[in-house]
Write a structure and sequence with these properties.
The complex is a heterodimer of chains A (162) and B (179). Chain A has 162 residues and is mostly helical. Chain A is built from five helices and no strands. The N and C termini of chain A lie far apart (142 Å). In chain B, helix 6 packs across helix 9. The chains are: A mainly alpha (162), B mainly alpha (179).
Amino acid sequence: MNSNNTPKGFKVPKGYFEDNKTKILENIGNVLHEITEDNFSVPENYFETSKRDILNKIKTEKQQPKVISIFNYRIAIGIAASLLLLFTLTFVNQKQPETNTIATKQLQDPVLNQKEGIKHSLPLSKKDKMLAIFVEDNTTEDDLIEEFLLEDEIASTLEEDF
Amino acid sequence: MIAEATFIEELKHPTTRDRAFSVLIDKYQKRLYWHIRKIVMIHEDADDVLQNTFIKVYKGLTNFKQESNIHTWMYRIAHNEAITFIRKRQKRLQINSEEMNTQILTDLRADVYFNGDEIEYKLQQALLELPEKQRTVFQMKYYDDLKFKEISEILATSEGALKASFHHATKKIQTYLTQ
């Protein structure tokens, strides 16, 4: 035998082994086909009853009123967008004048409106808020007394000079 | 081709639809049933999938664009319905694909409409061992006797890729059965 396993003096048609391989594979398929079809079965008169069942189901489906789902994603997005717009218009527009009012008040009278500033600051406990009010009030009073004394001292000094 | 075009017109027209649909069932239900049955294996499951397939076909007829022939289009619906059925069942049972295959084989043994012996059972085992695409191509080629061109249209895959899948499938089954 030579390197191709072909006995000396023998030849095979060109492409024989490739064709043979295909034939073998096809035969396997045919055998499998026969085995399988024989071994799977259906109930007697199945295809007649099945046809009737299919047609009945279709008849039932046709009789049912067509339900159009309103909750598809486009509508959902539309609703969400509308709610967001409504929320924005309601709350953002309400907050805007409030902020402006505080800002104006503080510009006009920054000391007296410090309480207002505390009220609108980040959440504080009740105790903290009370302390903040007293601390702010005391500071203001001291400042006023100090200012008064300072002014009084300046006035006395000026009187002495003249 | 002209006959099919006329038939499709009848299927789409409200006055002739029901009669034409009855003809359609007669013509294709066996072929579709066996295609489905080879995927889901159990008769009761195949029956459910077949009914759903025809309902989908009926509902989809008005939108059928005739880009492929009706036979190919129906096969695609049946195939997708069967695969979806298996996946839904797998999800419901919360098991992986290997466990699903075991489940199918267990159900097959209990199915009164399966008369296979051990060899047949082993063949089904071999088929279930194949990747989904290889198994599908193998089944469509041999059991349904479809041409590669038709399979290519149904599965939207190139003929070359299908031929390769089919070759691998056949070799694997051969190896599995001779082990």
